[in-house]
Amino acid sequence: MPASKILMITGDFTEDYETMVPFQTLLACGYTVDAVCPGKKAGETVATAIHDFEGDQTYSEKRGHNFALNATFDSVRAEDYDALVIPGGRAPEYLRLNADVIKSVRHFFDAGKPVAAICHGAQLLAAAGVLKGRTCSAYPACRPEVELAGGIYADISISDAVSDGNLVTAPAWPAHPSWLRQFMAVLDAAALLEINAA
């Protein structure tokens, strides 16, 4: 039943897998996905970073690919989208300083639309003030931000995801199968509600 139009907000040094895999998977499943970055236009690229788990105390970081944006941030309106995807990586730490990004994130929560965030994407949710009383997974280093924002941190396996109403979150890219499966279930449930309300 894919008919949903999804907004992906990303930026330079977004995590490579957490951007490319959901973008391509959702497109392959029939959803429309517009990937945008503040200050950049459709056709421009963002640099990605590959975060890996190699036995160190934290993830390692290497240069990834150039990910092509297919929409222009200044031209999109959150109201025109059915759902939001927030990849992790380095981008959320500075995207959360952008008032227009924060306004867009809040729109999806105020309207009760599906939202999927992974890894450091929780930094953006915390900054937008949308986590109070919500269960949220994230990369473990983001746990203090989730809890300081009033969220309930889901301490789950790195390959698991958790849903809390319209919000689907996961700790990192090894959770893609569970995270995307849960997100698509939320998308389909939201589409059914819309059809039944029409």
In short:
Residues 5-184 form the DJ-1/PfpI domain. This protein has 6 helices and 11 strands. By secondary structure, it is an alpha/beta fold.
Report on this structure.
- The protein has 198 residues and is of the alpha/beta class.
- It has a single domain, classed as Class I glutamine amidotransferase (GATase) domain (Rossmann fold).
- It contains 6 helices and 11 strands.
- α3 crosses α4.
- The longest helix is centred in the last third of the chain and has 22 residues.
What is the total domain count? 1
Mean pLDDT: 95
Which runs of at least 5 residues are low in confidence (pLDDT < 50)? none
Strand content: 15-25%
Largest sheet: 6 strands, mixed
Instruction: Write out the strand line-up for the largest beta sheet, numbering strands in chain order.
Output: 3-1-6-7-11-10
Q: What class do helices, strands and sheet pairing give? A: alpha/beta
- The shape, in one word, is globular
How many individual helices?
A: 6
CATH topology title: Rossmann fold
Order of helices and strands: EEHEEEEHHEHEHEEEH
Computed CA radius of gyration, to the nearest angstrom: 15 Å
The CATH superfamily title: Class I glutamine amidotransferase (GATase) domain
Q: Span between N and C termini?
A: 16 Å
Number of strands: 11
Keywords: Hydrolase, Protease
Organism: Rhizobium hidalgonense
Pfam families: DJ-1_PfpI
Protein name: DJ-1/PfpI family protein
What are the main properties of this structure?
198 residues; alpha/beta; 6-stranded mixed sheet; 11 strands; hydrolase
